[in-house]
Amino acid sequence: MIKETELLAAGAVIGDMPAAEVDRRLRQLMERRRSRSDLAELRELAELDACELERSTYQLARRYHDEGNLEAAARWYAAAAANDYADATFELAKVLDTLAARQRDIPASHASRREELDLVEGAARWYSAAYAAGHPDSAELLDALIARHDPSRPRVARPPAGHLPGVHAGEACPLGGLMRVMQGRLTTASVHVGTCHACQKELVDHGGILPIARGSQRPRPAR
Amino acid sequence: MSKRVSPEPDSGREARLSLASFEVFYRRYLPVLMRFLISQSRDSAWALEIAQDAMVAACDKWDDLLTFDRPDSWIFTIALRRLRRLEARARERCWLAEGTSDSDLRLVAVTDSWVGQHRAVVAAVRGLPRRQAEVVGLRYLAGYSLEEASAILGIGAGTARTHLRRGLEALGDYDPGPPVSTQAGQAVGR
Asked: Within an 8 Å CB–CB cutoff, is residue B23 touching chain A?
């Protein structure tokens, strides 16, 4: 057990460097500044500017966050979190969590699921980093994130673009509707073209797999 | 970018006066900065190097620093940022920590003598999560107020207070473990 009094006592003693040691290090510092190359000087100044830039980056992220622009906030928080600045890791995790929740409400598609997965992965990573940095709340938020984005949960079904349902005015198509029939035929045609030399030639001549209406033949690209 | 102060002694009265001021600053704040950094890094060699790097930066920007209300706050911010950047890079590349910790034995011997009888305190603060260690270190080892500590860390005062409370709670539960015997036969805390 460490008490406050022990901390204060340690603070009064630790680091009491002998004066000769301080002098030695000061001389080293001056010698280092005198003898460093232009490149070394530029590198040190650049590193210094980078340190100061983190503060601005974090403040910009907070501003975007307050204004509700979460995409921009995430981008700038990420820049600050990469170097462990302030609470950027925790804030970034929360923003990605919110963005993932928004993505989850978008009707299911391959792209939206992938986007959601990326966001969840990022949020989980930064919650872990925030936990290590000293935010115990991150553990609960991480648990909730994982529970919310369980891949086995049902999602809102999204009708595909140009969807023609298999049921029209109460009549059901036994093959699943026109769209499914067309998809099936295109797949069959693609497989066939992959093995048939004659059809490959024809495909090249026509410029695509779909039949082209007469009189609207596309010009062939110049070789 | 700040105008640099030339270290050459014959470069003018103003420059010499500024340099003299930097020397005062250096002598006063290097031990405090070291005290803080030793409690934040597992590697004492890193703490020493980063303190010196931060002082070089302060010397480079000395003219600008003279216009600051608290030049010492600036140097704590810069030193801590350098340390955390270095650690973040180390974590990314997996070359941190136990394997390289305290690798420079001469430096370890020097810093150990500074830590003295308070090794258990340093070990306990080093064992805290980073933000908690930073607030505890700035508040108790470097002697800053909570508001000053929050400004140095770039976080809100309320957040700093929360980190301080959690840090003190964790230190209250800290178990230094059984004493470890040194070569000289002394029993010290881990």
From this structure: yes
Tell me how far apart the terminal alpha carbons of chain B are, to the nearest angstrom.
Answer: 45
Structure tokens at B190: 């881990």
Q: How far apart are the first and last CA of chain A?
A: 81
Percent of chain B with pLDDT strictly greater than 90: 38
- For residue A87, give its domain range: 26-148
Q: Which of B190, B163, B162 is nearest to B177 (CA)?
A: B190
Final residue of a structural domain among A114, A148, A182 = A148
- Per the CB < 8 Å rule, is B1 touching A45? yes
Residue A120 amino acid letter = V
Helical segments of chain A, H only: 4-13, 19-35, 38-67, 70-81, 88-104, 110-133, 137-148, 178-193, 197-206
B155 neighbourhood in chain A, CB within 8 Å: 86-87
- Say if residue A92 is in the same domain as residue A137: yes
Is the pLDDT at A51 greater than 70? The verdict is: yes
Please check whether residue A153 lies inside any domain of the structure: no
A52 confidence band (pLDDT: 50, 70, 90): confident
Q: What are the two backbone dihedrals, phi and then psi, of residue B186, each rounded to the nearest 5 degrees?
A: -80, 145
Average pLDDT over residues A109-114: 76
Number of structural domains, chain A?
2
> Of A82, A116, A148, which residue constitutes the final position of a domain?
A148
Residues A32 and A135 in one domain: yes
pLDDT of residue B85: 86
Task: Give the integer Cα–Cα distance in Å for A30 and A161.
Answer: 70
Chain B residues 27-66 with CB within 8 Å of chain A: 27, 30-36, 38-39, 52-53, 55-57, 59-61
Q: Are B146 and B161 in contact (CB under 8 A)?
A: yes
ipTM: 0.71
Is residue A199 in a domain?
yes
DSSP B185: S
Q: Is the Cβ pair B38, A15 closer than 8 Å?
A: yes
Q: In this structure, what token pair is assigned to residue B7?
A: 């270290």
Half-sphere exposure of A196 (CA within 13 A, CB side): 11
